[in-house]
Amino acid sequence: MGFFEKFKQGLKKTRESFFGKMKSILSGKKLDDETKEEIEELLILSDVGFEATEYILNRIEELKGEDAYESLKKVLLEILNFNSELKIEKKPFVISMVGVNGSGKTTTAGKLAEYFSKSGKSVVLAACDTFRAAAIDQLKVWAERTSSTFIAHQEGADSAAVAFDAVSHAISKEKDIVILDTAGRLHTKKNLMEELRKINRVIKKKIEDAPHEVLLVIDAVTGQNGLQQAKIFKEFVDITGIVLTKLDGTAKGGIAIAIAKELGIPIKFVGLGEGVDDLKPFDAEDFVNALLEG
């Protein structure tokens, strides 16, 4: 099955519940007060959120199109279609994975390793979540599965030291990519954010502009709660992109639109299932077509 087909299948619930209805309400019509109210309700219910919903409706009105559905499509593409490509321009290229426990961060780190390995890149996976033995063990399995180099210390070790060792190893062995799987204890956020900053400080001693990407992993099923998590991380860490996981498990795919609009951070990858190949670069056009057209 092609990835667009997976997209269509993964977004089936949200399309049937919300966005497909918008298509039938708006196709061939102008936006009037009655349809505006219906669309507003559907957008908010789909997790697009109040702020992004108001923006979308205002933009549709500004476009003054005869077909409000085509205008909606155009506006969604405007919101989602920016800087989504992850460009590997340095070697080693360092990616820091951040996000709360349970968001699928360690699994995503492993799937990213698979994605890069398949394109011929050599990958180092670093177990910087030293607070959870399970996370270290899980990442080790992913390293074996993806033929990546695995760097870890024992449970409770200094996560910045693990990151430093991983970057040092990548430099000495001329590896292409380093993926740092960091801890995600948001309830003790001050300590966590200090830890993330320390990791960044330490690896800069080896590579001045590292990390080159900071990817925040958000579980799409958590909806608006995921958006709040992202806002907290953004206060402390310079997030360069979002990885939206479990998009196939939610009936509210509108969260992708809320994240892009409210945070101004591009979605770079999406996860649509449990398989090793189910993480792919985000494509705004495919996403919007799958959401509205099916």
Automatic annotation (TrEMBL):
<keyword id="KW-0997">Cell inner membrane</keyword>
<dbReference type="GO" id="GO:0006614">
    <property type="term" value="P:SRP-dependent cotranslational protein targeting to membrane"/>
</dbReference>
<feature type="binding site">
    <location>
        <begin position="181"/>
        <end position="185"/>
    </location>
    <ligand>
        <name>GTP</name>
    </ligand>
</feature>
<dbReference type="GO" id="GO:0005047">
    <property type="term" value="F:signal recognition particle binding"/>
</dbReference>
<comment type="function">
    <text>Involved in targeting and insertion of nascent membrane proteins into the cytoplasmic membrane. Acts as a receptor for the complex formed by the signal recognition particle (SRP) and the ribosome-nascent chain (RNC).</text>
</comment>
<dbReference type="InterPro" id="IPR036225">
    <property type="entry name" value="SRP/SRP_N"/>
</dbReference>
<comment type="similarity">
    <text>Belongs to the GTP-binding SRP family. FtsY subfamily.</text>
</comment>
<dbReference type="InterPro" id="IPR000897">
    <property type="entry name" value="SRP54_GTPase_dom"/>
</dbReference>
<dbReference type="InterPro" id="IPR027417">
    <property type="entry name" value="P-loop_NTPase"/>
</dbReference>
<dbReference type="GO" id="GO:0005886">
    <property type="term" value="C:plasma membrane"/>
</dbReference>
<protein>
    <recommendedName>
        <fullName>Signal recognition particle receptor FtsY</fullName>
        <ecNumber>3.6.5.4</ecNumber>
    </recommendedName>
</protein>
<dbReference type="InterPro" id="IPR013822">
    <property type="entry name" value="Signal_recog_particl_SRP54_hlx"/>
</dbReference>
<dbReference type="InterPro" id="IPR004390">
    <property type="entry name" value="SR_rcpt_FtsY"/>
</dbReference>
<keyword id="KW-0378">Hydrolase</keyword>
<dbReference type="InterPro" id="IPR042101">
    <property type="entry name" value="SRP54_N_sf"/>
</dbReference>
<keyword id="KW-0675">Receptor</keyword>
<dbReference type="GO" id="GO:0005737">
    <property type="term" value="C:cytoplasm"/>
</dbReference>
<dbReference type="InterPro" id="IPR003593">
    <property type="entry name" value="AAA+_ATPase"/>
</dbReference>
<keyword id="KW-0472">Membrane</keyword>
<keyword id="KW-1003">Cell membrane</keyword>
<feature type="binding site">
    <location>
        <begin position="245"/>
        <end position="248"/>
    </location>
    <ligand>
        <name>GTP</name>
    </ligand>
</feature>
<dbReference type="GO" id="GO:0003924">
    <property type="term" value="F:GTPase activity"/>
</dbReference>
<dbReference type="Pfam" id="PF00448">
    <property type="entry name" value="SRP54"/>
</dbReference>
<dbReference type="GO" id="GO:0005525">
    <property type="term" value="F:GTP binding"/>
</dbReference>
<keyword id="KW-0547">Nucleotide-binding</keyword>
<keyword id="KW-0963">Cytoplasm</keyword>
<comment type="subunit">
    <text>Part of the signal recognition particle protein translocation system, which is composed of SRP and FtsY.</text>
</comment>
<feature type="binding site">
    <location>
        <begin position="99"/>
        <end position="106"/>
    </location>
    <ligand>
        <name>GTP</name>
    </ligand>
</feature>
<keyword id="KW-0342">GTP-binding</keyword>
<dbReference type="Pfam" id="PF02881">
    <property type="entry name" value="SRP54_N"/>
</dbReference>
<feature type="domain" description="SRP54-type proteins GTP-binding">
    <location>
        <begin position="266"/>
        <end position="279"/>
    </location>
</feature>
